[in-house]
Amino acid sequence: MTHFLDLLETGFNRFITFLIMLVAASIGLFAVMIPLNLLIIKMGVGGIWWLNEAIEYSLYVGVFIGSPWVLQQGAHVRVDVLVSALPDRLAVPAEKILDLIGAGICSILCVYGFRGMSLEYMFGTLPDKVLRIPNWMMLAVFSLSFFLLAVEFLFRVRRASSIVEEDSSNHTKASF
């Protein structure tokens, strides 16, 4: 069973890495498209009319889809005063409990997002924007991200002792 979970976690980690690479590529694309749009406007040829809203949607998707990677890297915002104040023999169970609570909260938000997505799909709701991506697709991103976060929290339960050990040595991964 442990071998299967190791394979599952490895596959999950690769998937999360793939998603964060897509997010990074989209941010790089912004860096090219914004000056290009300004150049086109200054030349009086027109403009990329959909760019601002595409960036808005991409940032929304990127923040939600990138959050499991941030949690995985330990670069998320968290207050670990309780866990860091405990001795290792108590800190590991506390870390596991907190990760299970996080998985539970993320599961509830995933279900909430899925319910909202289903309703938006049934009603066919569209935003009042120039670039009209159906609302259900944005809620699908919300639901998927919280599903992935719940899975990552469950994997953190497996790694609780190494997480506590890493935190106690004051070694954090706060950058790429």
Number of strands: 0
Query: What is the helix content?
Result: over 70%
Low-confidence stretches: 171-176
Question: What Rg do the Cα atoms give?
Answer: 20 Å
Largest sheet: none
The number of helices is 6
Basic shape: elongated
What percent of residues are in strands? Answer: under 5%
Secondary-structure element pattern, one letter each = HHHHHH
Distance between the termini: 32 Å
Round the mean pLDDT to the nearest integer and report it: 89
Helices and strands in order, then pairings?
Elements: H1 2-42, H2 51-73, H3 81-85, H4 88-123, H5 135-158, H6 160-168
Could you characterize what this model shows?
The protein is mostly helical and 176 residues long. The chain has one domain. Helices cover 78% and strands 0% of the residues. It has 6 helices and no strands. It has helices spanning 2-42, 51-73, 81-85, 88-123, 135-158, 160-168. Helix 4 (88-123) runs antiparallel to helix 5.
Could you list some keywords that capture this structure?
176 residues, mainly alpha
How do you describe this structure in short?
The chain has 6 helices and no strands. The protein is mainly α and 176 residues long. The protein has one domain.
